[in-house]
């Protein structure tokens, strides 16, 4: 049993070996050729090393370029053209001599053996020992050809059984006949150790820079990708060479560094590149004053100032020559005017002189451009911070006196040049900081007294702090920093790491990881800047404005004190001059004035005015009622006198028809209770008023606006504007803001019942405009039969009254301008459509049909008479034949036989020409008659409507817009046909669209709102018997607000808003009444179109049958006789 087991094991484990021995190769040379073909490519140069000649290998066995080297002799040529090696050894000692020769000789000194392929031809049986020795020498791509057995041996040092190359246990041996392609690929290191040395020579304090995370990530990739056990070893001052040697013996040794030579180590490809940048302080922000100065360049300011001065003097000299006097006061006035033109673009008076006009126009054009440029620059200067030039490049940095902070590891990347003044200057400014102190670098972002040289990646990691410095990316004096891995010299793992580095850098993983770790590590340094929205101007922005204001106020106070002293020393001549001045402001020269008084006074005399005037003593009645008075002057001693004067105006003929709110009043009084006078005047709806108070020391002019917020809509006088007569400004009565005062809108019975029409929306829209435009609080009050006059009076006392109506006279109320006009139109039934028979008849007019029939009959008889004369007999049968032939010619253009007689030929040709034209005209008319509906005349104008006797539906409020004329038969007839319906019954009006037995009188706007229904009726726009309907607002009599509403109505109607709103609301309200008509395509002829053809056919057939019957009876009768 034991023998059987042993035999089985031998067969399983040694069957390949014995199998190979059973079929030997022809000879050893063929095996060498086969191995070399598999191991070396054709372009490689081979080096054959031997210690003594041998028959095992000759150079004739290879076609590659080769070099034969006797290791017993030195080699002087150092050209690196050898790619791979062939070594012939007898034993381990001769192999060691050959490897030592390569290590210390010139030919292999610069080679990395891990990238070279080795073919070892040996007689030794101890193959494992050869592998172990070669692995110690970092030679891994090796094939051993054993000459005694002709076996090819391979072994992978990273195989799990070989213990990471420490002992050769797993050896793949095969016969040369069964040799497979040889490949050296080691992506699995089977957990072999790689020592990563942490040194202090590169980027100290790794816990504060992204480098450690980048290295850690890459080492993890190596671990995962190649199955390497990565071990960290921290190098300290106590670490010696023996310790490093022990690490080399136990695994692969590598560390991180920059791309500079290191003895005993080889650099990988760069896995990350650092770009150095200069950082310098940000430019200093300019103050607001400096920003304004920098709106224009210096030479522009000089030109602007010189232009203003030159224009002032040119204007002054020209005007002085015209006036024939030179006055400094005129120069001051011109200066002020031109400054006003320059700043605001206004002037109090345009010069009349043509030369001055030309100067003014040219200067205005110049100012428009300068002011536009200044305004655009001013906005930018106030909202956008401006800065000085600062340090912009390396030249500026070299010129500046700033110290430049730099780390020791960065200094050597600054270029050297003994003859470069720039480089030497910058080097003299360098301040080197300790390598393990990162905090000192951040000081350059918080102080403005230094610069720095850091990497671009560190700048990105600074976050918002980078916005605090200016970055100069000029690389003319700098070199880039390439980070690499350093691996022990001639280590095969270098190539694998290079492949991994190439993959990660080209994919962008390294850059992405560096950015993320930089933000993560330096994120705590960021400054959370507030989100900037719209720029809010602060005192710093507008400091120059306040400076100018304070300077201007100071100068104004100085001037005021001077003028006040002059006025105190030189008082106003008299009260009469003040009255003249006030009247010049509030009355125009063409106005007629009424001076009312109760007793003569010296405060006012008619000689003070040049206007037409009327003097009225309120104690006497006035009979003359002509309305020629425009404005009023009242001389009162107290409130009682004022009451008497206003009562006189209210109930007397001279002011009975006046609207006091549109008149200007000058009240001359000696009373001190000015507020009482204003309150009483406002109660009387007198608002355009100026009170001139006559005092012993001075004369005060008082004004007050009832719509001022403090005056509570005219119920109480709080705010009064008082001026000295010498400092009086132009007076204007404009009230665009009613400060929320109340306006009552009365819904009358006539308006309240029109809710189904667009009028209500139009009114609501206009009331909203009034509320917004004049700041009026609009309230609606519905007037019913139970509403009393006292209720209306209470509303009248609490606000303004208005309501909607048509433009008719109404007692106690005044009409505004029309805000919408309705045009009335007549609507009547559409004309009746003609039948197809009637349509054929209407192809030609009656006279054409008469001429056609007459021509045919005449031609028939002429033809018959001529042919009968030729035949010398007159026969009725010939007449019938000729008639049939001419009818065939007329309809189909054919004839059975052309006549031979020349006369008949001439008649035939003339008739054919005539028939062609008539037939063409008939055919064209026939197409139109069959495809287009024809209608009778119908009702075309008002005369036809009167004759038709149709009932005409209209509404109650529309009836009186029909003109009245007892002598007009048309008007009386139409009035008799009118059927009046209720104003709120819209449904009855629609019957005229569905029945054809009535007409109507409606507005044009209602017709537009009918939509497609308007196509079912005929519209007559004859305005000869009608008047237009003007819709207006009615406002209480003598109310000043009428003028304001008129201006607003004028604006909205002229802009087209009213028409647009009316159209939109009409369509919205009457949309449900529209009829959707089916779209018409090509006309398809039906029986209705061709009815006449069938009628003619049936009539012809009937006549033919009758004729046939008559002929049959005649023949039968002849046979009987």
From TrEMBL:
Gene3D superfamilies for this protein: 1.10.287.70
Q: What is its main location?
A: membrane
The UniProt entry lists membrane topology as: Multi-pass membrane protein
The record's Gene Ontology cellular component field reads: plasma membrane
Q: Does the keyword Protein transport apply?
A: no
Q: Which UniProt keywords apply?
A: Cell membrane, Glycoprotein, Membrane, Receptor, Signal, Transmembrane, Transmembrane helix
User: Which segments of the protein form a coiled coil according to its record?
Assistant: none
- Where do transmembrane segments lie in this chain? 300-318, 330-347, 359-379, 544-568, 848-866, 878-895, 907-927, 1092-1118
Task: Quote the subcellular location field of this record.
Answer: Cell membrane
The name on file for this protein is Uncharacterized protein
Q: Which organism is it from?
A: Aquatica leii
């Amino acid at each position: 049993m034991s023998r059987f087991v042993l035999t089985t094991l031998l067969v399983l484990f040694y069957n390949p070996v014995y199998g190979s021995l059973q079929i030997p190769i022809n000879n050893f040379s063929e095996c060498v050729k086969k191995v070399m073909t598999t191991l070396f490519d054709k372009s490689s140069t081979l080096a054959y090393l031997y210690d003594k000649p041998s028959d095992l290998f000759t150079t004739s066995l290879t076609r590659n370029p080769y070099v034969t080297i006797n290791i017993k002799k030195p080699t002087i040529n150092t050209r690196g053209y050898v790619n791979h090696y062939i070594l012939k050894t007898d034993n381990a000692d001769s192999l060691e001599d050959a490897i030592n020769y390569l290590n210390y000789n010139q030919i292999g000194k610069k080679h990395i053996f891990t990238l070279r392929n080795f073919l070892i031809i040996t007689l030794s049986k101890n193959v494992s020992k050869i592998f172990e020795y070669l692995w110690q020498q970092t030679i891994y791509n090796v094939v051993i050809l054993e000459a005694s057995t002709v076996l090819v041996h391979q072994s992978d040092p990273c195989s799990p059984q070989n213990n990471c190359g420490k002992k050769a246990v797993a050896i793949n041996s095969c016969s040369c006949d069964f040799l497979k392609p040889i490949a050296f690929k080691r992506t699995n290191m089977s957990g072999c150790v790689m020592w990563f040395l942490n040194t202090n020579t590169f980027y100290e304090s790794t816990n504060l820079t992204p480098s450690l995370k980048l290295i850690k990530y890459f080492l993890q990739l190596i671990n995962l990708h190649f199955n390497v056990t990565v071990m960290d070893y921290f190098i300290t001052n106590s670490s010696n060479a023996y310790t490093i040697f022990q690490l080399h013996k136990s695994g692969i040794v590598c560390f991180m560094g920059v791309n500079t030579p290191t003895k005993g180590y080889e650099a990988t490809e760069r896995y990350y590149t650092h770009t150095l940048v200069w950082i310098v302080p940000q430019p200093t922000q300019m103050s607001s004053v400096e920003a304004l100065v920098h709106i224009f360049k210096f030479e522009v300011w000089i030109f602007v100032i010189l232009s203003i001065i030159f224009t002032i003097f040119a204007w002054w000299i020209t005007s002085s020559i015209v006036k024939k006097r030179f006055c400094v006061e005129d120069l001051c006035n011109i200066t002020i005017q031109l400054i006003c033109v320059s700043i605001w673009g206004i002037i109090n008076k345009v010069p009349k002189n043509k030369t001055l006009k030309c100067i003014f126009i040219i200067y205005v054009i110049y100012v428009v451009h300068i002011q536009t440029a200044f305004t655009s620059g001013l906005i930018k200067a106030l909202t956008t911070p401006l800065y000085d030039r600062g340090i912009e490049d390396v030249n500026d940095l070299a010129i500046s006196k700033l110290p430049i902070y730099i780390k020791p590891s960065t200094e050597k990347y600054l270029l050297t040049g003994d003859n470069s003044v720039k480089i030497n200057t910058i080097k003299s400014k360098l301040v080197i900081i300790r390598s393990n102190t990162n905090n000192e670098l951040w000081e350059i972002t918080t102080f403005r007294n230094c610069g720095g040289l850091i990497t671009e990646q560190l700048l990105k990691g600074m976050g918002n702090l980078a916005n605090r410095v200016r970055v100069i990316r000029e690389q003319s004096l700098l070199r880039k920093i390439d980070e690499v891995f350093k691996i022990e010299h001639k280590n095969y793992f270098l190539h694998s790491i290079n492949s991994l580095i190439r993959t990660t850098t080209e994919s962008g993983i390294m850059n992405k990881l560096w950015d993320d770790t930089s933000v993560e590590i330096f994120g705590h340094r960021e400054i959370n800047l507030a989100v900037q929205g719209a720029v809010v101007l602060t005192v710093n922005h507008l400091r120059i404005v306040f400076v100018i204001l304070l300077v201007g106020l100071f100068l104004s106070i100085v001037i005021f004190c001077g003028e006040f002293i002059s006025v105190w020393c030189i008082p106003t001549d008299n009260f009469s001059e003040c009255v003249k001045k006030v009247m010049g402001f509030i009355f125009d020269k063409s106005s007629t004035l009424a001076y009312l008084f109760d007793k003569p006074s010296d405060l006012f005399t008619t000689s003070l005015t040049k206007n037409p005037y009327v003097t009225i003593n309120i104690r006497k009645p006035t009979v003359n009622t002509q309305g020629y008075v425009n404005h009023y002057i009242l001389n009162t001693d107290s409130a009682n006198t004022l009451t008497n004067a206003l009562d006189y105006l209210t109930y007397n003929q001279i002011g009975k028809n006046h609207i006091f709110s549109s008149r200007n009043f000058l009240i001359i009084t000696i009373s001190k209770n000015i507020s009482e006078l204003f309150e009483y005047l406002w109660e009387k709806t007198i608002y355009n008023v100026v009170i001139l108070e006559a005092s012993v020391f001075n004369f005060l002019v008082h004004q007050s606006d009832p719509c001022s917020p403090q005056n509570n809509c005219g119920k109480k006088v709080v705010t009064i504007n008082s001026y000295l007569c010498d400092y009086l400004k132009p007076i204007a009565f404009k009230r665009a803001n009613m400060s929320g005062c109340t306006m009552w809108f009365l819904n009358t019975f006539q308006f309240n019942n029109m809710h189904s029409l667009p009028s209500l929306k139009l009114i609501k829209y206009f009331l909203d405009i009034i509320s917004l435009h004049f700041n009026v609080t609009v309230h609606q009050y519905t007037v019913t039969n139970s509403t009393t006059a006292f209720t209306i009076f209470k509303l009248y006392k609490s606000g303004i009254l208005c309501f909607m109506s048509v433009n008719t006279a109404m007692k106690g109320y005044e009409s505004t301008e029309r805000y919408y006009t309705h045009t009335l139109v007549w609507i009547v039934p559409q004309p009746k459509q003609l039948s197809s028979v009637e349509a054929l008849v209407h192809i030609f007019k009656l006279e054409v049909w008469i001429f056609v029939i007459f021509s045919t009959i005449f031609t028939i008889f002429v033809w018959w008479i001529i042919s009968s004369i030729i035949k010398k007999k007159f026969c009725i049968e010939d007449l019938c034949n000729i008639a049939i032939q001419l009818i065939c010619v007329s309809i189909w253009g054919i004839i059975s036989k052309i006549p031979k007689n020349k006369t008949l030929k001439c008649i035939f040709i003339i008739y054919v020409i005539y028939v062609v034209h008539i037939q063409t005209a008939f055919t064209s008319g026939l197409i139109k008659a069959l495809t287009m509906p024809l209608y009778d005349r119908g009702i075309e104008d008002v005369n036809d409507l009167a004759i038709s006797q149709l009932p005409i539906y209209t509404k109650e409020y529309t009836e009186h817009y029909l003109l009245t004329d007892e002598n007009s038969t048309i008007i009386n007839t139409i009035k008799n046909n009118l059927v009046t319906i209720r104003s709120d019954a819209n449904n009855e009006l629609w019957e005229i669209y569905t029945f054809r037995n009535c007409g109507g009188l409606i507005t044009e706007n209602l017709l537009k709102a009918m939509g497609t229904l308007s196509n079912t009726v005929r519209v007559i726009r004859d305005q000869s018997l009608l008047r237009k309907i003007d819709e207006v607002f009615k406002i209480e009599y003598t109310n000043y607000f009428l003028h304001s509403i008129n201006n607003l109505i004028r604006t909205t109607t002229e802009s087209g808003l009213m028409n647009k709103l009316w159209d939109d609301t009409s369509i919205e309200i009457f949309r449900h009444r529209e009829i959707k008509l089916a779209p018409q395509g090509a006309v398809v002829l039906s029986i209705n179109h061709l009815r006449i053809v069938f009628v003619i056919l049936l009539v012809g057939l009937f006549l033919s049958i009758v004729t046939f019957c008559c002929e049959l009876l005649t023949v039968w009768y002849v046979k009987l006789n």
